[in-house]
C-alpha cells in the first residue's frame, strides 16, 4: 500500500514536468520552422529552395556578416536546408514537426523529440550539436581554409600538425572526444600543432585535405597529409605523430662514434647538441625539437644506461640523475653551453637552442643563413655588422682560417657577427667585393659589411693588408672595429650583392627520387587503408583500362594472324594483277574500302581544294606524267598504291607535265634540297630534266613535300603482262583505275613499242616501299615557303 501511495504522490509531479517540457519544446519547434527560416512555402520546389539557400548563405556567412547573430542564423539556415532538401526528412517534418534523426540546432535550450514528446537537451546531457560545448572544446583549434594554406602548411615544415575532422551530427565523434582531449593536452605541450575542421562550416578545407568521413584524424608535416587508420587510443595517436617525423633526425651516440659525430661540424656547418638521458628510446620532445631546428643544429642522443657510453659520461662529467644537454661548436673537447634539469620543458629547450644555433664563425652556404647572420638594417639602434673573411678550402689557408676563428672567439660586441666564404663556391659574391677581373685567386681578405636592403645593397670596407692570421692582421682588424663603433661612415663603399649559391642543395635526381617515393608511399597507404567503397572508382578505372588494353592486344593478334594467312595467296596472284589491285610489296593498316583507285587530275580548278586548302594531317600523293605515258603510269600507280587507299588521310592525283611543266620546276626550285638530281650529261649537251614517273607527297597545311625519284630496276619478270593504254583513263578531271578483275588483257603491240612501254612501266617498281616509308614518317621532308600558283605558271602545250 505504501508503494502504491508513493507512486501516486509522484505521478502529478511527473505530469507537471512532462507538460512543462512539452510546452517549452513545442514553442521551440515553432521557433525553428525551416520553412520560416528559409522564407519559402511548403509547396516550394527543390530548385526554389536551393536558390533561396544559396542567397541566404552568402548573406549570413560569418566570414562576410559580422553581426552578432550571424553565426547562429547561418547554422539555422544550413540545418533547415538539410531538412528540406531531403525528401524523406521533409516528409517527416511535414507530418510530425521534426525528423527522426535530426537534432535541434542553435542554442542549447532547444529540445529534441522522442516518442512524440520534446525533452530539454540538458535533461539527457547530449554533447553533440551543443554550441557552447563545441566552443569550449574545439573553437581554440578551429581551422579555416585560408588559415590552413597561409599558416599551417608553412609551419608544418617546423612542426607536425594533428588535425581532427568532425561535424555537428557525428555520433562517433562523441566517443573519441575524451581521448582526443587527453592527447591534445599532452602533444600540444610538446610542440605539436593542433587543428579541428568542422565539415559543416569548412567543407572546402575538408575536401582539400581529402577527408570524406567523420570522424577522421590526419597529420600534416612538410605540407604532406597523412591519415590515421588505427583505433583512437592515446598510445596509437602518440606513435602516429612520432612516425610522421623523418628518420635519423637524432643520431644515437656512443663511445665508438662520438668523435666522428662531434667533428662533423665543419662539413655540416652546424653546432652539435648531445642529450644525455636514462631512457633507451629518444624522447618525443627531443625528436620534435630536432625537427624544428634541423636546418641549424645536428642532434645526438646518449643513453646513459648503456655500458658503451661510460667514457662519454666520464669525459663530460655528466650527472646521471637528470637529463643533460650539451652544445658543441668549433671545439669538440669542451661544450660551448650546457643545461641540466629534471623536468626539461619545451620552452627551456627552445631558448637554449635559439641561443646556440650558429657556430662562432659559420660559413655562408646559402642566402637564408646570410640573411639571419647579417640582417638588413632597420633603424639606427639596431645596426648589425658582419665581418666576412674570403678564403679558400685548401690546406694552405688553414692557419689563417684558424686565426680568424680565434679572433672571433674573443669578440664581445653584440652588433658584430663573424663569417667566412670559400671563394671557389661563392664566386659571384667574391668577384664583386674583390673587384677581380682575372681568374687568379687573390690572397685571403677581410671585409666589414652592413646590409642596407633585402635587394642586396651593402655598405662595406676592406681591411687593408689582407689576412694571413698574424698579430698585425688581428690588430688592424681590431682597430677598424673600434673606429666603426665611433664612426659608422668609415664604410665608404657600396655594392649590390647577388644571391648566394645553396651549397647544400641536393641534386635534381635525388629530389626526384624522394618525390617519387613520397607519391608511391601515399598511393600504397591509400590502397591499404582506405575504405573499399571509396576505392571503387579508382579500381574500376584501372580494370577498365586493363580490359581495353588486353582486348586490343587480342584483337590485333587475331587480325595479324588472319592477314598473314591471306598474304600468301595474294602474293601468288600479284603477278597477274590488273589495274587497281593491291601489290605484293605494299601493306596498309586499313584494308581498301573500294575495288578501284580514285585519281584526280591536278588542274587550276582542283588545285586549291586538293592542295592549298588541304585539311591538316592530310596529304596528296601526286604522280607526274605526260600524255604519252599517262595510261601506262596510271595503271602501275594504281596497282602500287591500292593497298594504301584504306587510309582516310591520303588523296591521289596526277599532274600532266605537258600542261604544267613550269609549275613542277618552280616547286623544286623552292625546295632546293630536292633539286640534287644526278645527271651525266655535259653542260653543253644538257637536256631538260624528265620528271615523268616522279611522285610527290604534298602536305598542303604544313607546306612540305616528299619526293619519289623513279628507278628502273631492269626486271623483266613482268614483260608477259605489259599494260597498254587501257590500264587507266585520265581523260577529263577524274580518272579511275579499276581492279584487276575489271579490265581485260590488252592487245599486243610492235616490239619497239613494247620495250619502251616496259621501261616506263618499271619506273614505279619501288613506289610501294616508298609509300610504306611515307606512312611511317621516315622520308626526308623538303619545306617550301609557299605553293606556286598553278594557273599562273602554265607551259605551252
From TrEMBL:
Q: Where is the composition biased (Basic and acidic residues)?
A: 563-576
Keywords from UniProt, A to Z, are:
Autophagy, Glycoprotein, Signal
Organism equals Oncorhynchus mykiss (Rainbow trout)
Q: Which residues form the J domain?
A: 33-97
Q: Which GO terms describe its cellular component?
A: endoplasmic reticulum membrane
Signal peptide, first to last residue? 1-24
InterPro entries to which the protein is assigned, alphabetical: DnaJ_C16_autophagy_reg (IPR052448), DnaJ_domain (IPR001623), DnaJ_domain_CS (IPR018253), DNAJC16_TRX (IPR043361), J_dom_sf (IPR036869), Thioredoxin-like_sf (IPR036249), Thioredoxin_domain (IPR013766)
- Please state the protein's primary subcellular location: endoplasmic reticulum
Give one Pfam family: DnaJ
* Region (Disordered) residue spans: 561-593, 716-758
- Membrane topology listed for this record: Single-pass type IV membrane protein
What name does this protein carry? DnaJ homolog subfamily C member 16
Function, in words: Plays an important role in regulating the size of autophagosomes during the formation process.
- Biological process according to GO: autophagy
Comp. bias intervals (Low complexity): 580-590
